Amino acid sequence: MSNNPDSNFSTRLRQVTQDDHSEAETSEFITTLMGGKRSARDYTLLIAQYAHIYAALEEEVRALDNDPEFGSIFDPALERSGQIAKDLEVLLPAHGFTSLPDALPATKVYIAAIREAAKEPARLVAHHYLRYLGDLSGGLAIGKLVARHYSIAPEALNMWDFGDIEKPKVYKDAYRTKLDSLGADPLAAEALLDEAKRGFRWNKGIFEDLLRSSNGELVSA
Ligand code: HEM
Questions:
Q1: Contact 152, 146 (CB under 8 A)
Q2: Which domains does the chain have, with CATH numbers?
Q3: Whether the Cβ atoms of residue 44 and residue 220 lie closer than 8 Å to each other
Q4: What is the residue with the minimal CA distance to atom 7 of ligand 1?
Q5: Taking the model in full, what pTM does it have?
Q6: Band of the pLDDT at 1, cuts 50, 70, 90?
Q7: Cα(102)–Cα(33) distance, rounded to whole angstroms?
Q8: Whose CA is nearest to atom 2 of ligand 1?
Q9: Which of 10, 17, 25, 208 gets mutated to test ligand 1 (max ligand atoms within 8 A of its CB)?
Q10: Which is nearest to 120 in space by CA: 43, 176, 189, 217?
């Protein structure tokens, strides 16, 4: 790869997924949630879907932890399942749920895609990138906004607490450097780019199902 920063794989990844990212982040469910127009119950529905997603992602990622090529990008400090479980202990009973709501149809599709991607590690990295770099970016804003709009207490906001990662920007820059090394392999690079684009669309689909579920058009509990 050349030294031109614009040709870095991580830059290319960000560029080719820019439109899909915009589409996902402007989904009605998430913009209204962040804008204070929904409810703490809707936020609980979102975190419940995350419980399903991260359980699958983290199980698959742990299985590749010692992989010589891909293991270096996987970092236990990112894992969210334990944090989500703590949040749901508070959120579920507070918002009328007696158990974890089922995975919505779009969540099931996404989980199946993550399981399939795990057969080709470069594709699993795409989901790892999407979820964790997203959480360390716009995700942190979601945490701050829902705390403010819906008075969600800090003990229910562990999802956005990355304790060991003090400076998200520094962490994300180091992560992108690791992506650049992986992207030096053309086959891995193409698989990762392809899977990341699809991954944004699957995530958008989950927001669409959450909107329907919140509006009572889909049964989620
Ligand atoms: C809630 C709506 C969202 C907002 C407000 C948002 C906002 C942002 C912002 C401001 C950044 C740039 C951060 C930076 O330059 O360091 C970013 C990056 C990112 N977001 Fe989002 N985002 C949202 C949804 C999503 C979703 C649904 C995903 C995918 C699951 C996602 C994945 C990412 C990724 C992977 C990056 C890192 C891009 C890179 O630097 O390579 N975001 N987001």
A1: yes
A2: 13-67+74-214 (1.20.910.10)
A3: no
A4: 138
A5: 0.94
A6: very low
A7: 20
A8: 25
A9: 25
A10: 189
